[in-house]
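Entry 14. Two folds queued back to back today. First construct below, sequence then structure tokens.
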Amino acid sequence: QVQLVESGGGLVQAGGSLRLSCAASGRTFSTYAMGWFRQAPGKEREFVAAINWSGSITYYADSVKGRFTISRDNAKNTLYLQMGSLKPEDTAVYYCAAGSQNYPIRTMTSTDKYYYWGQGTQVTVSS
């Protein structure tokens, strides 16, 4: 089992940057594909980015491509999301998740491919 704890959220002005972290417990972090999702009020949870077990393959939602970077440090059991050029529409609760290694990373866009979830961290972008 993996426990996930996000941090790094906050209030930032449009055009600014934030880095989210997701700390994982347990010694099996490196065996999971990892993803970031977000959920705005009144909306469904949506895919943001995913990364394979080694960090060599990444995939992004079109809405964040070129602005966000997902990465991981398996030695530190930590997942990251570097967010830049933030927009008000990026405002949401951001969740990290650990999922199956059995699918291509480009298909890890649905919540049902993930086994474990963090509690989320709020990101608010002011205009």
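Second construct, same run, same settings:
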Amino acid sequence: GQLVESGGGLVQTGGSLRLSCTASGRTFSPATRGWFRQAPGKEREFVAGISRSAGISYYADSVRGRFTISRDNAKNTVYLQMNSLKPEATAVYYCAASGREFYSASSIRRAQQYNYWGQGTQVTVSS
């Protein structure tokens, strides 16, 4: 299975971007999908995650209310709509996927639970 991301770019403070991540592969249909990000000099951190069947989603405190994660299972695609962007959102955003379905926040937030990762897409928010 492979994850292919798109949608990153440069945006001004207060602007919006939508990231997409499509899982490709004949039988690759991940159960749990997530977005993580890594800013220069910082560790990778959880942004948002969503389960498949229950549609349960969780967000990092820093993005809750401004970012929305959603998924289109028919297209094997997960989206991250990012509104009211701030300069501190500047980072490389990574799509992640797991064949297992997780329901708890503690599980969905853990990078170690995901065994597939995208190549990353740069998001830059100018002040």
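Quick look at the second one. Residues 58 and 105 are 6 Å apart (CA to CA). Helices lie at 105-108.
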